[in-house]
Amino acid sequence: MTDDIARFEAVTAGYGGRPVLDGFDLRLRRGAVYALLARNGEGKTTAVRCLLGLEPVAAGRVSLFGLDPWSERTRALARVAYVPEEPDALPGLTAPRLGRTVAGLMPRWEAAIYSAQLDRAGVPRDVPFARLSRGQKAHVELALALASRPDFLVLDDPTLGLDHVARRAFYGELIHELVERGVTVFITSHDIAAIEKIATHVGVLRRGKLALDMEIEALKAGFRRVRFGKHVPMPARPLRVESGLWGVEAVLGDYQPAELESWRQKTGAEVAPMSLEEIFVAVADDKEVA
Amino acid sequence: MRAFLTVFRVTIAGKGGLLLLAAAIGAVPVVVGTQRPELFGFGPLVQTIIWTGILAATFVLGLSLLGDELAAGRLSFFFGRPVPAAAIWGGKVAGGVVVAVAITAASLLPMNFWWPRWDQGPELGPIGLGHLATPVLGVALGMVAGVLIRGRSRWSILDGVALAAVPLLWIDIYAPIETARTHISAIPRLTERQPLRDLLEQRVDLVVSVLVLAAIVGGLAASAAALSVGRASARRAHAAASVTLWSILLPTAACVLVYAHWFLPV
Fold first, then answer.
1. Strand ordering across the sheet containing A4-15
2. Is B80 in contact with A93 (Cβ distance < 8 A)?
């Protein structure tokens, strides 16, 4: 049995003849918390929609639990829960009625999980969904997803538009649940600081393709920011280079300490680790390598 | 079946306001008739007004069943879960038809029971397919219109051309129907020409029934195509609905046109 929960193979997909994903490959392994990062309009949501069978692919293949999510959507989604970018729950229903509605749609619904999630998030029970705050809506969507007891949770930028406190609470809930049950997660987000705390794997989508796909620890070990004086040749090929009055700053995507150590001592260069956000900016920025 | 019932329940929920409105409209002729008994003679006119109101109300109901959710991106609530497109469509159609029939009953029943000269008598009269067809027609056309209006894709060009053709076709179909009706009213009952009268009536009924049936089938099939092909995408749903609707309605109207011109002038 394959260890892949989902797979994209040379996928091309888009809208109105304009491909957003263009030869996109990705494997999501069981147990991973995979964060797909990209700038706006680069195809994160398109990837999610192809994965859930909401959009067909123009070329290539998507599989979810070994099934084609477009032609076998209901079987493929039986163990999947989805939290959309824009809250899509029925606006006239209160949280308890939404729970009862989703209970009729999801085969593994657990009312106790839903109720506990609503309690923890302090969601009022008598207010229709449309009149909840943006943060409360996000919590209801997350509760609906988690109470479905999925094996695979798909979150499409779920904290978009939330303030810092609400985002922190949302990810707090998510981490709590991930620790409890160990579901496989595919998440797209612009909230990279929060992603850094929960992701096990990170992919960066650029120009329709996966520009980077690594385990987060390997990623952080492999990237370094190096500062040194001008006119000093560097022994490794940098991913990006910027120069200013203060000298040169380079980003290394394949940092080998042994290779760089003697050069660092000789030149007095500063080598510093990078946050996920800095790595993302270095990879996703469209500027070519200097 | 569980998913169908869930969608059905959600569709019905929150439509109580429409029923109250229908009951209020239904009560108007009763109240007016009680105060002004001389208006009893206008029963058929009031009846026509009420049926038109029912068609309009059920059309508006149909508009809200698909178009709003499609435009607001809320269909992913169902399509992002393992719910078959058939259950979503079936639940919405069934829920819509139940509410539409309830609107029809709430609008008509007060007048039928309390206005003594409704259609020459206090009874409702034969409840035939015609009574059921109006609310179903309203829901079916409203559902597909919601998709076409809210989809706003390049398929609007096809919709515009087809919609322009509809009144032209209708004028061409209506002319022989009107002529046939004139003939029917000129033929006395219980004479040796009664069979001719019956034949003409049957043919007029057939033409009208086929048109109404095509509109119902076209509307329902187009909304089904919009959901199964379009899923949560308004543009794809529009394309599917447009192609399905017009490929049913226009050829049917053309056939009816030919029939009306060849077989109605007996």
1. A18-29, A4-15, A59-64
2. no
| A15–B235 C-beta distance less than 8 A | yes
CA dist., res. B52 & res. B15, Å (int): 20
By C-alpha distance, the chain B residue nearest A101 is B6
Q: Tell me the chain B residues in contact with residue A75 when contact means C-beta distances shorter than 8 Å.
A: 82
Mean pLDDT, residues A120-133 taken together = 92
Q: Give the number of beta-carbon pairs within 8 Å between A and B.
A: 73
Q: Which tokens in the block code for residue A71? A: 């032609």
Q: How far apart are CA A217 and CA A127, in angstroms?
A: 43
Would the CB atoms of B79 and A54 count as touching at under 8 Å? Answer: yes
Q: Return all residues near A5 (Cβ < 8 A) that are at least 6 apart.
A: A28, A29, A30, A64, A65, A151, A152, A184
Contact at CB, B80 and A15, closer than 8 angstroms: no
**B233 and A54 in contact by Cβ < 8 A?**
yes
Per-residue model confidence as pLDDT tens digits over B120-177: 443 444 455 667 788 899 999 999 999 999 887 888 889 899 989 888 888 888 888 8
- Average of per-residue pLDDT across A110-118: 92
Longest distance between any two alpha carbons in chain B, whole Å: 66
Q: Report pLDDT for A52.
A: 96
pLDDT above 70 as % of chain A? 97
CA-only gyration radius of chain B, Å: 21
Return d(Cα A271, Cα A94) in angstroms, integer.
Answer: 54
Is residue B205 classed as helix, strand or coil in its secondary structure? helix
Cα B138 to Cα B26, B106, B118, B133, distances in angstroms: 18, 16, 24, 8
Residue A289, Cβ density class (10 Å: 0-12 exposed, 13-18 middle, ≥19 buried):
exposed
Q: Min CA distance, A225 vs chain B (Å)?
A: 41
Give the model confidence (pLDDT) of A128-151 as tens digits. Answer: 999 999 889 999 999 999 999 999
Closest by CA to B224, choosing from B86, B95, B99, is B86
Q: Is the pLDDT of residue A290 over 50?
A: no
| Residue among A37, A27, A20 nearest A61 (CA) | A27
The predicted pLDDT at position A31 comes to 87
| A101 contacts B83? CB cut-off 8 A | no
State the smallest CA–CA distance between residue B265 and chain A in angstroms.
50
What b/e sequence results for A180-208 when a residue is b if at least 16 CB atoms lie within 10 Å of its CB, and e otherwise?
eeebbbbbbbbbbebbbebbbbbbbbbeb
Q: Which residues of B touch A107 (CB under 8 A)?
A: 82
